């Protein structure tokens, strides 16, 4: 994802659908989509935006780079990477200089025309002239390293600091045919390497070089890794010294917040809702230590936090389906708050009808629609603010709109006790819905209550009726489902207990207990006469 300089727009590179989605970050709504099918290959892989927010620079997975108009999506320029269009250079990532005059591209292989070569390159695009030059990394002399070590395969990590470009990748030792993991600094004025740091000399798959993040306060580089053994690498760019900070596993992305004094590092799979916070302030007594862990961080905290700060609404618009009747919810779940301060919630727009209450302390609310005149939905808007006593930067703030779509709801239907083969008569019940509904019925035991013998009023609203005829003895749960023309549904269930039908002939003769009583009376009577 690429964020505009003012944070108002996000550009999402849709690799498989060969397009770019443009999102308004104030509403989280996709406002337009740019098609990229006109590119050589058409599968966007990485991108940056110019400092003025007018131009997107993207790479096409295996091949070239392009300039895209950020307003219209029109293709403005094609930059050939390699010897000819279509060379497989694997341009994994880009970075842009502070003035926007140059864009820098990592070329994982740096292919020659018609083939792929086993060396990497740094592509340098002059955005004013459209020319592209390539620094062949295999030809660079690496400070402090023997001549048999070359920085051959740059991976996604690339950052720009003035005239210096930092790359992460795999240094190759031709003497023993091994790869390491490290970074290199290249002076773009001379195309020479000015610094080389190797974190691991014999790559064994324990961790891979990932994205690089340059401390805006200056002096430090950070590289999250995908390993619990290494965590996040912190590098002093002046001295070359480095350390491993234990952070969440399987990480590869991060974002600086609070003016560069903290770094959020997210866990990609362990889990995606967790992010560790590293103190990156050199003046702090906890410098380069994990000071807290965010357990409710969104999976894309690394990109959102960069512009929204530690307090923001991550769901500005929500749609909820709920049965007609009192609904209880909370807008606090839409807020990401890592400040330690308790926000104050308030309603900015009340629902048009119904009863509504919201707690200013917790963000919990109860919404009861008008049952007698139910509308299809009800909406309200809210906002949350930090108290003036909170010292933390609130960032983008929090607020949004919640729309409750009222689904049909049933009044209560008590349990029925019937005899096999008996009809229930007419059972009346209430259905609360915004539109007339169609009701269908199912039975947990069709032998006891055959669904086909349940007669339901069609197109009812408000007062509805049913009549069912039982089958064999037993118990069954009958479930009624009301469906509105819009497709919204609601259900209810009730039990039916069916007893056996009376035995044949039992209506006018003597029952067994009555017959036993008569025989006993005759026997006792005869004994009395004999005596």
What do you see in this structure?
With 531 residues, the chain is mainly beta. It is built from two helices and 42 strands. The strands form eleven sheets. Strands 13, 14, 15, 16 and 17 form a five-stranded antiparallel sheet that branches. A four-stranded antiparallel sheet has the order 1-2-3-4, with no helix packed on it. It is elongated. The N and C termini lie far apart (111 Å). Mean pLDDT is 82; it is low at 111-118, 298-307 and 507-531.
In what range is the share of β-strand residues?
Answer: over 45%
Strand pairing plus helix content: what structural class? mainly beta
Let me know the largest β-sheet.
Answer: 5 strands, antiparallel
- Strand tally is 42
Q: Sum up the overall morphology in one term.
A: elongated
Secondary-structure topology with pairs:
Blueprint: E1 2-3, E2 9-14, E3 19-24, E4 29-35, E5 44-49, E6 55-60, E7 65-69, E8 75-79, E9 91-96, E10 102-107, E11 121-126, E12 132-136, E13 149-161, E14 164-173, E15 178-179, E16 181-187, E17 192-200, E18 213-214, E19 220-224, E20 232-236, E21 242-245, E22 254-257, E23 262-266, E24 275-279, E25 290-294, H1 301-308, E26 311-313, E27 317-323, E28 327-330, E29 335-337, E30 344-349, E31 355-358, E32 364-368, E33 377-385, E34 398-407, E35 409-410, E36 416-419, E37 427-432, E38 438-443, E39 454-456, E40 462-468, E41 474-483, E42 489-499, H2 512-530
Parallel strand pairs: 27-34, 36-42
Antiparallel strand pairs: 1-2, 2-3, 3-4, 5-6, 6-7, 7-8, 9-10, 10-11, 11-12, 13-14, 14-15, 14-16, 16-17, 18-19, 19-20, 20-21, 22-23, 23-24, 24-25, 26-29, 28-32, 30-33, 31-32, 33-34, 35-37, 37-40, 38-41, 39-40, 41-42
